[in-house]
Structures are given as structure tokens and as C-alpha cells.
Fold this protein.
Amino acid sequence: MTHFVPPFGSPEIIFYIGQTHQIKNIECANGAIKGLYNTSQKIDFISDYHFVSIRLKPFGLKQLFNLNASDLLNSVLDIESHPIAKILLDLFRAEKTLDITFFKKLMTSIEQYAVYPVSSSTKSFITLTSESNYKTIKDLTLQNRIGLRTLQRNFKKEVGLSPKEYLRIKRMNAIEQKMSQNIGVFEIIADFDFADQAHFIKDFKKIRWFTPTEIVKKRMLLSDQLTNPEITSI
């Protein structure tokens, strides 16, 4: 069972339910700490797979595990290889009923462990990319008095991507949201300042492997691939 999952700007903690070794691509037995990906992922699951994914904020790997997030770009760690993740896995395994109440308690535990500092430049930039119309890095930093070199140095270490890569993924995800609303390609080209249709298709395929038309036809839009989480944590 193969899924092509788009990059969406959040690292994850993945807990397997029931069967071990649920993702064929990786050797992790009971779950994984997943870094950010800057292109679509081709994931092969075993049949009847069941897992729970806890999405962290973009800097969650640094804040929770004190990991240099760039070391985990396009890769995963075994969930049992980190002491804090192992504690969370033990809490998960001990629970007999996986309901909203339990997950809220799990989130509380995660937040209590989140003690490692993250730079103000990284946090500010992430906030701006959520609120802006996806301007250039230069525009965002100049208008908001963020030092570009400081941001570039901190962001790569704390998020795993460069600010430019992160902004590109945020922008592409916004484009996919437009596409899911059946907004025409030429309106998208105008809204996101592409030079022409060829430029749009080239940029889209670089991240998603397929053209916009193929993504829609194959039902692989972000909204088709990922459910909205009921709980959001660090």
C-alpha cells in the first residue's frame, strides 16, 4: 500500500498501534520520530496498518528533543532511540483506551518536556509565514526587523529547512488549498506571482513529483492525503 504524502512543514512523533514495522521503508519497530521533508514522500505501508501521528510545531524537534533538526531532514529516528520519546511510547502503550481525553494528557506530557530554547527569529519568521501572503524572505525580514543571516543560521538548525525551503512548502500548501476549492490555474498563477503556466508547473512538480493536473486526477492533494488534527501541540 503506497502513499505519496506531501511535505507540510511539521515534524511528527509516530506511534504504531498493534502491528510492528508498519512502514516498509524504515526499520523502526514501534514508531518513529520523523523530521521535515522538502519533497513528497513515497511511503509503503503493510496491510491493515494503524498508527497515531502527533504533529509538532516546525521547531518541535529542537524544543522537545534538543535535536539539530537539519540532521533529520528527509529521515526518521527510531522512537525508542531517544529517552523522552521512549517515555511517551511507554505512556501510549500502557493506555487501554485511545480517546481524546488520553491524547490531551499525552499532549500535556509532551509540553512538559519541551524545555530547550528556540530563537526568537525562528518563531517570528514562522508566525509571519502563517500570516503573510508569502512574500520573499528579504521582504519579510526587512519589514519586520529580523536579521537575515541570524535567521538563516538559527532556522536551519532549529527547523531543519532553510527559511527559503520552508516558505516554498508553505506557499505550495496554500496553492493546494486553492486547488482543492476548484480555483482555476490562471487565478492561482496571478495570486502567487508565477511568470506563466510553465513556471507554475515546474515549481509544483519539483516538490510534489507530479503536475497539478496529475495531483488532482490521482486525488493526492494535501486535503486528500492528510486529515486535520483534532489536537495541536508544541
